[in-house]
Every structure is written in structure tokens, then in C-alpha cells.
Amino acid sequence: MESRSTGDAPAVPAPDLAESGAYRIWVREHVRFADLDPLGHANNNSIGVYFESGRLGLHDAVGLPVLMRGTAVVLARLAIDYRAEIHFPNELRIGVGVLRVGRTSWTTGAGLFVGGRCCATSEAVTVLIDRDTRRPTPLPADMRDALSGFLL
């Protein structure tokens, strides 16, 4: 099992993203007919969009505005593990939390659930950048604190 740490804190075991009990933040979504591929299940691109909704739900809970003056957030890495097919119609629940907080970035962990079954998990690294230089910029202390409040 991997471990995670923030700053000077000791490493702790990483949470199991497939366990719904790991999450405090939940976002609801639904499978749209347009999300289906020729095989009749939700396309992998649609699943990426569901996880994007989850990340935006986290940003809302943290108080991170979608558009910020002088800075922006960019997705630097997205990994998705597909565990089960998702069909239409279905209601989805996306659990989301923070795995790590770094100097200029944070890592989000999420699980996509249909009923009690985890159908996919994701890890995403988001970086705060300066809008003018397009280079990473340190997270303000209040943002670091807010993100740390949602560590899994």
C-alpha cells in the first residue's frame, strides 16, 4: 500500500479510493444517453467528465473560485482505474477528497459509485499557475489550509 504525507507530517497509509467511507464530499451525476459508446456503456471520456464534476465539487467545498484573479488551476495528471461498466440510465455518486498538498499543487482522490458499487477511481494532480508567466506558483496559506481540511 502507498503512503502519503504533507509537509513535515509523517507518512500515513493511502486510503482505499474504492471504499465509500473514505469520502466526506459527494457530488451527484447521472449517465446521459450521449455518454454511451457503441458497446452500450459510458465511454471513458464521459467518466473523465464525471470525475471533473467531483473535482469542481471539492473546489467549491474548499472555497476555490473557478476563475481567480492572477492565477489559474490546471490539471497536470489524471489517472483513472476502470473497475466496472456503467450503463444508462444510472444515478452516480462521486466521492472526492485530497490525498496530498504540495508547495504548488495538490492531489485529489475520487471514487465513482453506482449504488454501493465502485465503478472507477481516479487520482488527479492540480497545479496553481501564474496567469502571466504560466509557471507554477506557491499555494497561498489559506488555500493550503482549506485543502488540508479535506485530506482522506
UniProtKB/TrEMBL annotation:
InterPro entries: 4-hydroxybenzoyl-CoA_TE, HotDog_dom_sf. Its EC number is 3.1.2.-. It comes from the Bacteria. It holds the Pfam family 4HBT_2. Belongs to the 4-hydroxybenzoyl-CoA thioesterase family. PANTHER family: 4-HYDROXYBENZOYL-COA THIOESTERASE FAMILY MEMBER (PTHR31793), NOVEL THIOESTERASE SUPERFAMILY DOMAIN AND SAPOSIN A-TYPE DOMAIN CONTAINING PROTEIN (0610012H03RIK) (PTHR31793:SF27). This is Acyl-CoA thioesterase.
